[in-house]
Structures are given as C-alpha cells and as structure tokens.
Amino acid sequence: MATTAELFEEPFVADEYIERLAWRTPGGGSRGGEAFDPKRLLEEFVNHIQELQVMDERIQRKVEKLEQQCQKEAKEFAKKVQELQKSNQVAFQHFQELDEHISYVATKVCHLGDQLEGVNTPRQRAVEAQKLMKYFNEFLDGELKSDVFTNSEKIKEAADIIQKLHLIAQELPFDRFSEVKSKIASKYHDLECQLIQEFTSAQRRGEISRMREVAAVLLHFKGYSHCVDVYIKQCQEGAFLRNDVFEDAAILCQRVNKQVGEVFSNPETVLAKLIQNIFEVKLQSYVKDQLEEHRKSDAEQYLKNLYDLYTRTTNLSSKLMEFNLGTDKQTFLSKLIKSIFISYLENYIEVEIGYLKSRSAMILQRYYDSKNHQKRSIGTGGIQDLKERIRQRTNLPLGPSIDTHGETFLSQEVVVNLLQETKQAFERCHRLSDPSDLPKNAFRIFSMLVDFLCTEHIDYALETGLAGIPSSDSKNANLYFLDVVHQANTIFHLFDKQFNDHLMPLISSSPKLSECLQKKKDIIEQMEVKLDMGIDRTLNCMIGQMKHILAAEQKKTDFKPEDENNVLIQYTNACVKVCGYVRKQVEKIRNSMDGKNVDTVLMELGVRFHRLIYEHLQQYSYSCMGGMLAICDVAEYRKCAKDFKIALVLQLFDTLHALCNLLVVAPDNLKQVCSGEQLANLDKNILHSFVQLRVDYRSARLARHFS
Description:
By secondary structure, the protein is mostly helical. The protein folds into four domains: about 15-25 and about 40-140, no CATH class; about 145-235; about 405-545; about 555-705, Up-down Bundle (Methane Monooxygenase Hydroxylase, Chain G, domain 1), CATH 1.20.58. About 75% of the residues lie in helices and about 0% in strands. The N and C termini lie far apart (about 130 Å). This is Exocyst complex component 5.
C-alpha cells in the first residue's frame, strides 16, 4: 500500500500513473535487456487494483467519520450563537434603560442650570448697576476716587465703564444732569484720546498684540474711525520714497494685508479704506501732476502719459483684487479708477483724433518737403468729375502729361509711420474708451487712417502717376507707373494687415463692423479702378514704344532683299530690339505685381504684342528669302512669348508662325499647309491675306492653287 501511495503524484495524470506502475513491475518493459512479460504485468495490475479498492474503502470510512464530526461541531456552534444572541439582547435592553436614565438626569440638570441662571443674571446685572451707580456718584460729587480711574494701567476697564456711563448719560434730562453729562463726556473724550495715543505708540513700536487690544476697546467708541485713520496715515509714512508710486502702493497694500487681520476685527473695511486713501490722495495727485503739465501744450506726450498711467492704475487694481475688500471689490476699484480719470477720459477721443490728424498731416508734409514737391490739388466737382468720368470710359489722358522724373510719391517709411501712429491710437482707444463707445471711436480712428494714408497719400500718388503716363505715341517714354503699382500693392498688404490685427478685434461684435468693411471695400475698389486704368495706359505706351522701334528699324528691303542669295542675318534688327524691350517690360511687370495680377497683365500685354506683330507683318511683301527671314523673326518673337508663361500668348504666336509658313511654301503645297492642324480652324480670309503678301501672288500658278 505504501508503494501504491508513492505512485500518486500531484498533479495526478492517469496515463502517467499507469506508466510509472508498468515501469516498476519486473518484465513490464525492456529494462536491462529483460524481456517483456505480459502475464506478470497483468498479475501486477490485478493485485494493484485490489490494493486501490482497499484504499478507497479506508478513505471512505475516514470521510464519513469526519462528516459526522463536522455536523456535531456545527450543531454545537449554532447553539452557542443562539446563547450569545440572547445575551446581546439582554445587554441592549440594559443600555436602553441606562440611556433613558441619563437623559432624564441631563434634563433635570439643564432645568436646574436655567433656574440658577435666571437667579444669577439679575443678580449680576444688579451688581453691575450698583457699580455704575457708584461711579456715577463720583461724577456727581466731582471727585473720581476709584482706582480704575486713577490707575493708568487699568485704562481698559475705565474705558468699558465710561463707555457705559456715556450711554446712560445720553438718556438723562439735560436740565438736571447737564454738569455730570459734561464731566462724563469730557472723561469719555480723554480716555478716547489716550487709547488712540496708546494705539499710535504701539504701532510705532510694532506691538501687534497691544494694537489689537486697544483697537478692540476703541471699537465701541465714536473715535474708532479716527483710530483707523491714524493707522492708515502711519502705514504710509516712508512707503512712497521711490519714483514708482504704483509699485510702492502695491508693496504697501501687500504688507498691510498681512497685518490688518491681526489688529482689527473688520480687516476688509480697514484695507478698503487704505486703498481708497491711496487712490484719492497719492495716485490722484500723481496723475494730475503728470497729465496737466502736457494737457494743452503737448498732445502726444499727454496721450502717452494718459495711456501709461491708466494702464498702470488698472494693473495695480488687478493686483489688489487678490485681497479681501468686501462683497463687490470689482465695482469698488472701478469707481476709484473712474474718480481719478473721469475728467480726462470724457474728451479723450477728441484729443486722440486731433493729435492723429495733425501728426498724420505733418508726416505727409515732411515727406513732400523732402522731395521738394508742392502737392497739387486734385480737385473735385464740376469739370474734374466730368474729366474723371470721360477718362474712366475712354481711357484717354485728359490734360497735359506731368513729368514726375521717376518719382512715385509713395514712401514705405511714410506708410509705416502712419500705421504706427494709428496702431498706437487703436491701443489707446481699446484701453481708454468706454466699452459702449469703443466701436464708434475705433471707426473714427480708422476713418483718419483712410483719409491720410489712402486718400491723401496713395490716391494722390495714383493720380500723379496717371498724369505722368505719356501718350501712347510718345518716343522713348519712361514708364514709372509700374513702380507706383508695386509700391501701392505693398502698402495695401500693410493696410489690410493692420485692419485685421488691430481694428477687427475692436469692432468684431458691433454694427460698425459692416460699416468699416464697406468703407475698406469702397476705397480699395476706387484705387483698383485707377490702377487698372494706369496699367492699361502703360501697356498702350509699351505697344507704342514697340511701334516706334519697328517703324524706325524695320525696312522694306528686309523681307524683299535685292540679292536673294546674299542674306547673312538670322533675324532682323527690329526684331532684336523689340524682343529686348519686351523682355525688360515682362520682368518689370513680374517685379511690380503678385498673384493672379501678374498673369492677367501679362496676358493682356501678350495679346496686344501679338496683334502689333500681326498687323506689322501685314504691311510688307515677301520674297522667298524674305519670307524665311519673317519666319525667323516670328520664331524669335515666339521665344520671347515663352517668357510670358501664358498658354494663350504662346498659342497665338504658334499660329502666327504657322501663318508665316504660307509666305515660303511651294504653290503646290499651299492647300495641304492650310489644312494643317494649326491653320485648319482659321478664317479663310486670314489665310488669304497672308498668301497675298507673297511677291509671286499674282502669278497664275499661285492664284490657281489657292483658289
């Protein structure tokens, strides 16, 4: 059985158990060369099964015995729990009885205490009244003998007595007790002065506990407010020695805030009174000195000081918000700030607009003076309006051209100065304007910016630039309007940035937003009309310059040479000069504009350039070699057109190049060329007009092939 028990290992696996049993049986395996003996193994298995059955019976008997024992112990434990529950119920009943008894005794004690108090309180009041009568008699006799009045160390007790006597004396008739009332009042006043003096001395010595005692006694006296005033006055002694009164005030309030709670029973009231005193005395005096000095003589310095002082005052107010000043400290501090600045804020925007107007006018005048330029009047109404309408409809230059000597009359320095002044005005407006007036005031500042920057500077420069554009038939004309366009474009970006960064936050939630956006839209559209007009006239001048070059450089013999066999040039001199001129103008346009405007203007120039070359080629007759030279010229023009980087322009010159092939193609191939991809969609009259330019057009053979 011991051997059988050894075969049980944890965890138990039946297959492994059989393997271990077979391995232990002699002849059960091939161990040590020993042959396998199935009979012996079977015999061993039968014996082992019998052993397992015996073991199972023993274990079963043991389990039954343990179950019986467990049931017996469970019954005993349940019986014991029932006994404990009964004992607990008995104890709980005893506790309830004890609690009721204690409550009964406590009720009796409270009732007895109330009875004792009812007897003792009148007795104490009678004793106190007797003492007050005794002290009152001393005032009647005119001689104060009690130690409480003669001993200076008992000033606290004397103050309590005299305060009560003073209240009693108020109820007495004046005709009978006038003398004693005056004596009590005199003593009341003397004690009050002594207490305040004692408080002052304790504050100078830094004795917080003594200050607290005296303040507690004075709390019931009329002079308590005077005690607070003395405290506030002494707190400020030596506190404002530096130049920064705002920082000094913050440090003082921080120090007092830590101390006032240890001294007074109402610290928030005392601290609020200190702050009120600082604002109404120190700060108001300081602000007045700083502002009145420049109010009428120097508007710029006045506005800077006003903004700085108001900002520093509001920052100080934000720091003071950390302290306990009562229920509505925000309103309290706002009223203090308003009391200091109300006289300056009422007319702030008028001063701001007046300064901005004079400053902007000075900046512009200083610029024109530096250019030795007398600003001419653009004029309005009547004839000027009529001229403007005619010019917008016909694009004709009305009046004599003005030579600006290459000056655009636009200055980024002037623009930056104007925008900087306006930016500072917006910042001051945001800080100093009442919230209800902020959008209206911001709009007025924006209107000033539009007047001086857009109308007086940019619009004047555009008008001057338009007047400086020469007529399209002028020779060697200098075209400076593109420089005006370039600078105006840069200025527009700066103007738009300030509009979004500084004006929009001030008006974003008000009806003034739509008004500002409309004003901005109108002024930009007005200037865009003049820019478009100037660009259009500039392009006409460019085409005019090209016409002069072609007229001066192109000869009739270029395309009909006398000696057909002795042509050495690849393209004509006129072509070289026109292409050089065009490339310069393309580069200038790219440098003067940005975005889609570049492509729009280059497309317009390219179309006009193509029309010019097309009409120019129609003026000549072409021999075979002249036609080849014309093709070379157009090829060079087409190469120049690639610099435009506009698909339409390049397509136009590709078609023109294909048309020029009609000048040299053999008569037999004309119809084939005309039906090619590039010429198939063209009007037959256009094709015919180019064929007619051939010197051999009148030959019967050519006419027959093209008919």
